[in-house]
Amino acid sequence: MTHEEVMQMLSELDIPFAYDHFAEGESPDPPFICFLFPGSENFAADNAVYMEFSNLSIELYTDEKDPELEDRVETVLNDHEIFWNKSEVWIETEKLYEVLYQMTV
């Protein structure tokens, strides 16, 4: 999945999103999403990269727990046939929940 394809997929959610982070002072009010490709999980054959796979992280930020929005994100991922794992953390300094979706695409 390319950067452009991820952006196209995230646009289906109709909430602000950015790659990695928003510029200083330009962060929208929650909810918003940041996504990034933090690494790869390539498949090797004959001592070379045979197939390329990227790790993709989608970070959903909300100021309160929002199960309905999480369901919407998960529906979009499922509709695009993406296998994902989910974790959650409260960021005290930002007063935000971060729901992290991790996948290999």
Alpha-beta classification: alpha+beta
CATH class: Alpha Beta
Number of helices: 2
Strand order of the largest sheet: 1-2-5-7-6
Q: Strand fraction band?
A: 35-45%
Query: How would you sum up the major sheet?
Result: 5 strands, mixed
What number of domains? 1
The end-to-end span amounts to 6 Å
Can you describe this structure?
The protein has one domain (3-104): STM4215-like. Helices cover 21% and strands 43% of the residues. The chain is elongated. A hairpin with a 4-residue loop joins strand 6 (84-91) and strand 7. It has 2 helices and 7 strands, in the order H-E-E-E-E-E-H-E-E.
Give the helix/strand layout:
Layout: H1 3-11, E1 17-19, E2 32-40, E3 43-45, E4 48-51, E5 54-62, H2 67-79, E6 84-91, E7 96-104
Parallel strand pairs: 1-2
Antiparallel strand pairs: 2-5, 3-4, 5-7, 6-7
List keywords for this structure.
single chain; alpha+beta; five-stranded mixed sheet; 2 helices; elongated
